[in-house]
Amino acid sequence: MMHFKQIESIIIEILQEADGRFLLPYQIFEKIRVKDQALAQHIENEYPSAAGRPPMGAGAGIYYSPASFIAHALDSFMKVRTEITKEWLVTSDISIKEVQPGSEEGVSIWAWKETT
């Protein structure tokens, strides 16, 4: 079973490299895949897109996938890391390939914002 702590340092690194810009959990996972293929594969093995379920990123919030694992981890991290910022992207009237919200709130987006 994957634990959030196993991905904390790489997620923080990815958010810091985004230089204050917001990323979708799906994008963060894709960046993990580039930085550490073994870790990405481990996450995918733990949270596969099973038959009858949409691909990762589609229906986030309804189906547990690598992207939703990332979002839940970030929710946990932001309780102690005040630099992690969460906002909601309202998805009405737009379409993002591979990303369909599973929540009426929209899709979570994340950034690292240095506190002053």
Description:
- With 116 residues, the protein is α+β, with helices and mostly antiparallel strands.
- It has 4 helices and 4 strands, in the order αααβαβββ.
- It has helices at 8-17, 25-35, 37-46, 66-77, and strands spanning 58-60, 84-89, 100-101, 107-112.
Task: Summarize this entry quickly.
With 116 residues, this protein is of the alpha+beta class. The protein has helices at residues 8-17, 25-35, 37-46, 66-77; strands at residues 58-60, 84-89, 100-101, 107-112.
Question: How are the elements arranged and paired?
Answer:
Blueprint: H1 8-17, H2 25-35, H3 37-46, E1 58-60, H4 66-77, E2 84-89, E3 100-101, E4 107-112
Parallel strand pairs: 1-3
Antiparallel strand pairs: 2-4
Helix pairs in contact: 1-2, 2-3, 2-4
Structural class: alpha+beta
User: Helicity range of the residues?
Assistant: 25-40%
Q: How much β-strand is present in the residues? A: 5-15%
Main sheet record: 2 strands, parallel
Arithmetic mean of pLDDT: 83
Global geometry = globular
Enumerate the strands of the largest sheet in spatial order, edge to edge or round the barrel: 1-3
What would the keywords be for this entry?
4 strands; globular; alpha+beta; 116 residues
